[in-house]
Amino acid sequence: MPQIRNNDRAMFEDPVWVARIWGRLRALPLPELDGQVPIGLPKALRFYRYRPGQRFKMHKDGPWHEAGHTSKLTVLIYLTHGYQGGETDFREFAIHGEAGMGLLFVHDTWHEGANLVEGTKYVLRSDLLYGPSVS
């Protein structure tokens, strides 16, 4: 839908990379939400590329459903730096990501990938799947 997003997107499955990313995330103090705990990432990783003039207008993310589990948080990992514009804008504040920086937020949060002015911005996009607590 070019009236909402005109950035490029690719998806692929790589269990090794999913396991690596999950291994780093699970070491963080991730929140319990709605009585459920984080259990992993979906098997498909999504990559976004933004070039000058590209953006992803204000929106909320929807949940990802996989293997009987539902995601509750969006995971963004910034892969590049040195670009201008392209902030992840949350209305009240904006994040200018740098390579290696990660960002987690609840799906039901308004945000946009602002217009990129110069350079190329690459982002890995995933979701944090939740399931019942095993206590």
UniProtKB/TrEMBL annotation:
Coiled coil: none annotated. Keywords: Iron, Metal-binding. Residues 46-124 form the Prolyl 4-hydroxylase alpha subunit Fe(2+) 2OG dioxygenase domain. GO terms for molecular function: metal ion binding; procollagen-proline 4-dioxygenase activity. The keyword Iron applies. It comes from the Bacteria. PANTHER family: PROLYL 4-HYDROXYLASE ALPHA SUBUNIT, PROLYL 4-HYDROXYLASE ALPHA SUBUNIT DOMAIN-CONTAINING PROTEIN. This is 2OG-Fe(II) oxygenase. It comes from Inhella proteolytica. The lineage of its organism: Bacteria, Pseudomonadati, Pseudomonadota, Betaproteobacteria, Burkholderiales.
